[in-house]
Target: Transport permease protein
Amino acid sequence: MSTLTAERVATRSAARRGGFLTHTGFITGRWLRAQYRSPALIAFTLVQPAIWLLLFGQLFKGVVALPGWSDSSYIAFLTPGIVMMTALMTSGWNGTTFIADMERGVMDRMLTSPVRRGALMAGQLISNGTTTVIQTILVFAIGFAAGARYDGGVLGYVVTIVVSMLVGTAFGSLSNAVALLTRQQEALIGISQFISLPLTFMSSIMLDPKLAPHWVAVAARYNPVDWAAITARQALSATPDWTSALHHGLYLLTFTLIVGYLSTRAFRTYQRSV
Model:
């Protein structure tokens, strides 16, 4: 390949990347404006994780007395789990915004415009990621007020926030894909609950899998939500096992990238079915 040809290829590639980033910025701004015009929705998404943390914290606090339980504080064990549970449950509703766009005809206009399909997906996920960050900070604040303490320092909190965003991105992408494929809010809600509830209870969000039936412990090994909880707890601990945290974090990142790619391709299926 000649030098001139190589420069042209590089220039076109840069232009495509710039276009994607520009489109993503516009889509992100659109969804952020829509979010902050709904104060009731903001209040609900912030209050919900607080209720979960306080409710489950009181309901299951007696598990620390069970033989084999290694943590002295259940609220400290539970808080990172509630962070991941919140990211999972909140992201399950992502697709409802896509369905609203379909019903108003906005989605069809978007897909006939020059906006990149990946930007349509990424912009919406980034805007929802801001909510995930706020929810994570709130859960930690409530956990701290309830007595949870962590020795992992700032790095531990940063890792937890990043991991929660990966959970939100992965299952937000999946929710958007289901919306594009079914185009029905009822189907989306049903499928979301069918996926999120088993993933929640077959993980270490509320209970160490070692204390659960053997099949639950086995299922947890292949559960992306459990990978996230393990990564966060390791990063927050006084003596983190960074090998375990890195392995589970990479599993989660790989899962997120695969789901994001496949979900973006759902736009093609939607366009063919319209």
The first helix runs from residue 3 to 36.
